[in-house]
Amino acid sequence: MLINNALDFPGNTTLPGTTFPAMPFVFVGDKAFALGEHMMRLYSSRGLSIARRVFNYHLTRARRVVECAFGILANKWRFLHLPIHLKMETAISAVKAACALHNFVRERDGYNFEDSLSHSLESPNQSGVRGNRHGAAVRDDFTAYFMSPQGELPWQLEAI
Fold it and tell me: CA 18, CA 146: separation in Å to the nearest integer?
């Protein structure tokens, strides 16, 4: 939740089945966002190790899920295609209302596969923003987790 212009994140938590240090909750972003403790972005694509390519694969999959879900929601509730010019509290209520109405319509009318086939969200102008060292350390910890027996996917090496 946004409080005093800052996000109030849940406390760090240990990843399932690991003894890794407790990890923060994070957003997944693209290169338009600076790497930070709570913002993950891809490693630069030059000369990546296998572990870093695996991390990029996991992050790309996560971003794709989020982008598809938001695309489905935005195609039904067109106001999400534009900047929301409302007070923060009102914008939060509008987005929550769109989610609740979306779920209500899906429950009432059933799932419409056509809704999920396309969305036309514009990509922002990406300018490659640098991050901080703590964010890099968090990303490296996630990279190690995705290469560990607890965090790996059976097909991840074939997918990169």
Answer: 11
